[in-house]
Amino acid sequence: MRVGMAGLIVAAALAWGLPDAASAQGRCETQRGQWADQAVANAISLYSLEWTPFGTTEWGWGTYLPLLQKEIGTDCEPGTSDFAAALAAFQARYALPATGGFDQATFDVLKGVLQERRPFVMARVRDECPDPPPLRELGYLEAPEEHADRLTRLLRRDVLASYRRMVAAARAEVPEVRNDPELLQIFSGFRDPEADAARCATERNCDGLRRAVCSPHRTGTAVDLYVGQLLGMGVDSTNPASRQFMTQGATYRWLVRNAGRFGFVPYLYEPWHWEWVGASASYGTP
Ligand SMILES: [Zn+2]
């Protein structure tokens, strides 16, 4: 028996008891006439693209999909024509060829857009390294907020207050977070630059010297949040498989959509690392 793609989707929706799946698919196919071919190409490259966005080979671009969807203003999946149309609009906005297809040039623009929202990065571009805050501006985490693998237990007080509001919202809105107290615990907050330098020397963990020379954690506004971990890998493993695992979880996806409400912006390369930039950190189109 020959079954068309639409038939398969409907059959899957019925089998999985997801009556909305077929209509959701329709909702993301309003641009079908123009973008159907590019939708198929995106669906394939999502898993098969071989590239080196950060120096080591990665396959596919699912790790960066939540941030890309947020930025281009769609929750449609890559295999849909509406995703391709939204991506083409983003490409046009940044003077790229509006192909609607994911590629390295589009990724580089996304990376630049996100980096520019981090005042710390902009300071580093100007060759400045922000001073640590005075100790009186730092507050201690409560024990339930500290991850077992923590490096530090201090954060700037205003950032800590925003973090607490964000965690309360995540618990209210995400069952996965509500049911697992480890999720969104902090494993690194304020890090004293001198202690960081000493750690770099003794543990030989210099993170490419960035940590020793000038880490965003010296500001007291950067937090490393537990967003899950791949079995056998660390809470801050930059292994591509580790980062891909983290970004597929409900916790990270919620952060991408909502952390801006609480003043936090993401770092594309590290799903756990967020920086507080102030009360109005909305980023991306809604
Ligand atoms: Zn960090």
UniProtKB/TrEMBL annotation:
Cited Pfam families: VanY (PF02557)
Keyword Protease among record annotations: yes
InterPro entries: DD-CPase-like, VanY-like_core_dom, Zn_M74/Hedgehog-like
GO molecular function, one term: carboxypeptidase activity
GO biological process, one term: proteolysis
D-alanyl-D-alanine carboxypeptidase-like core domain residues: 155-278
Keywords, ordered alphabetically: Carboxypeptidase, Hydrolase, Protease
Protein name: D-alanyl-D-alanine carboxypeptidase
Membrane-spanning residues: none
